[in-house]
Amino acid sequence: MGIKKYRILVLLFSVLLSLLIVETPTAAAQLSQNYYAGICPNVESVVRGVVSQRLQQSFAAGAGTLRLFFHDCFVRGCDASVLIANPNGDDEGHSGADLSLSADAIDLINKAKAAVDGDPQCTNRVSCADILAMAARDVVSLVGGPFYPVELGRLDGKVSTRAIVKYSLPGPTFNLDQLNSLFAANGLTQTDMIALSGR
Ligand code: HEM
Question: Which of 43, 46, 90, 189 lies 20 to 30 Å from 34 when distance is taken between CA atoms?
Fold first, then answer.
């Protein structure tokens, strides 16, 4: 895909991201832009620094990170459950569409988490769900899309199961009614769905 087309796509995708950030059912009322002000004040710049560095090594990690966030948010809300690895392999990452999630994107989030935890003030005090939400926003803006504020304070999920993925994510054979109803369940309109799915 050409860079110009990619930039247009990220502009469209950012609409979804901002909607998901507002609509996520997980503790939505407690989210705020300055959630980490007294906890880990530099978290935004640390995450952005890692994202910027990783994009220089792998430009494709940007698209992969955006897709990772989309897949996380559609399954149990934006709770980073997509990153959980169950010892028995019965986790989201081992199911259907999640099998093709980008290893570079997962690595990017792991690196961002490690960088955040590297500051003793922040260790284990910033959720992976928030790091993923910030990183998805950062890839959008760093490849030429808009920058938008991300509300923070999500809690990480503790549950990840294979079976739920196929009921939560759109499949390649979905018809219009199925797509509409799945996106509506995530607070998105048909117009949102069409704009976001165009490529
Ligand atoms: C509407 C229904 C959708 C379907 C059926 C769908 C399906 C797919 C499939 C099959 C791929 C290729 C995966 C592979 O490389 O094997 C893909 C890639 C991708 N999807 Fe979707 N998708 C949908 C919506 C979305 C939405 C709403 C977003 C973003 C908000 C999104 C973001 C992406 C991105 C960024 C990639 C490229 C990932 C990469 O290159 O690493 N998709 N999608």
Answer: 189
CA of 67 to the centre of ligand 1 (A): 6
For residues 135 and 51, the answer to whether their CB atoms sit within 8 Å is: yes
State whether the beta carbon of 102 lies less than 6 angstroms from ligand 1: yes
pLDDT, tens digit, 9 for 90 and up, residues 76-123 = 999 999 999 999 999 999 998 999 999 999 999 999 999 999 999 999
Q: 35 in ligand 1 pocket by Cβ < 6 Å?
A: no
- pLDDT tens-place string over residues 11-52: 455 545 554 544 444 444 689 999 999 999 999 999 999 999
Q: Is 173 in the pocket of ligand 1 (CB under 6 A)?
A: no
Sequence-separated (6 or more) residues with CB below 8 Å from residue 64: 101, 102, 104, 105, 108
Range of the domain at 180: 3-197
Helix axes 103-117, 60-74, angle to 10 degrees: 80
Q: What is the number of structural domains in the chain?
A: 1
* CATH code where residue 151 lies: 1.10.520.10
- Does residue 71 have an active-site annotation? yes
